[in-house]
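QUALITY CONTROL LOG
STEP: pairwise intake check
CHECKER ROLE: data steward
CRITERIA: each record must contain a sequence immediately followed by its structure tokens, with no blank fields

ENTRY 1 OF 2
RESULT FIELD BELOW
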Amino acid sequence: MPLYPLHGTIIVTGRDSDGGLCGLDETLARQAQAVVTMVADTVRQWQHRPPASNEAATRELLAYATREVATA
């Protein structure tokens, strides 16, 4: 799975019971912010220690994201 750079503002929303967009509850917002912060920190670290492959990068980010969501 190749990584694609995202540029600009990213908006994370939830869905209401009718399928419309709504804001995230406090817990989900905190988890999303924790993952965003972790991804930004990891990408900065990759400038000095790049991942071996796109697959390795994806695995690393998913492992960190899983940990952040579990502890946020």
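ENTRY 2 OF 2
RESULT FIELD BELOW
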Amino acid sequence: MSNEANQDSSAKPTSVSSSLPNSTDPPTFKQIYATLRFCLRYANSTANIFNRLITLLETTDIITITSMLPKEELERFVPMMAQRMTRIRMDIGDIGKFKTLSQAGGVSELPLIRRCDLVPPKLRRSDANKSGQLMILGQLLPRLEHLNMQASIADPFPVNLRHLHTLIVHQSVYQEMLDRICDNCPLLQQLYVRNEARPNTSLDIAHIVKCEQLRDLQLPLMLHTPVAVCYLKNLKTLTLQRQQLWPDMDWLPIVRDIINAKRDSLQRLSLDGAWLTIPLDLHLLQLYRCWALRDVLLSNCKLADPTGHVSLPLSCQRFSLMDCSVSTPLYFLRNSAQMQLLELHKCQFANRGGKLLMELLKQRQRLPILNPLQLHFSDSTPLRSELLSWDQKQRQAWEECLQIRELNDYKMNWKQKLATIIMTFGDPVNYTPDLDQLNEFSHLTPAELLRDL
């Protein structure tokens, strides 16, 4: 016994420091387990090494490691884990096992854990083996706020996850499950329903109105009752996605209904048409009715000539095309006197590519503009050739209406995934401005204002 004790005491100074590698090298499973065993045998419960170990265990297979601990060490470690752990990552099929381990350590719940990542099972399991797992999870983690469900699950969404602020569902989402989420999670601020396993499912989002705190919402493109989003007063970002061919024009009425329902607060619309099957007629989205809309950003779209006279609202200040095919962007700039930035990057022009800049200049000269239009373009031989044909004096003379800049190695400056539509909302513009508060021109008479114009 004395020899063993001497050997243990001599090993203590080197084992803790040498078991875990430097911060640049992630520790292996064996290193974490060996260090944990050593610390549980010799280190004080308040030692900082336990903080580092628990931080590592938050993103690794904690179930396997704790299940390998002897009973005495498990009973010591589980209470420390409950007092320090703030997030956990586990197999969806191991939730019941984790509950058993926690109870064996004398802990019924882990109240400090705020985030949980549920990953698919290592071995293929049937949905029956996962029945009731989310209910058990809610019992173990009563204060859970962030749940990332990467695994598919057929469970009804339980009522004991009411503190969730963020929910991400990657795989299958059934109508009943979505309704239960809306009923049982009134504090949700971020909901991402990606439905990667069932992309053709059309969900009815009528119950979404119960999540009044929602700020960020991601849904499949094909929906029923899309106007329900107009009741979400706190909504800032709505993302619609479909990673398959978009069904002709069936998606367009859904998006148009949402745009019309939020037309007084829609500030920015970005659309990637990588999976569009027919040319996009921008006029059919009725953006011209959105008097708060400032930015329209399109990528990977083949644009049809607008069927109406106006496609963009008077409030629009930025119109960006990236990897788009269009006959001429002039169609979209009619009556856009407030437009400040036009971006044409890697675009193809079917008609009048060699005269586009001159026609754009003439169009701007006919409008009652207050500021010159900034035109940024890249990877366009026709625009570069026409710009080089203008001499320096012409450019300076026309800068009051149009300022042109060619960019090299341009990268898209807005975040946009393929085949997604992103809408950004702000405070609703549903009031008449108080002219008495516009002090800048309050001292001028109408005649003086007309003279200045």
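INTAKE CHECK: passed for both entries
DESCRIPTIVE NOTE, ENTRY 2: The CA atoms of residues 375 and 404 lie 5 Å apart.
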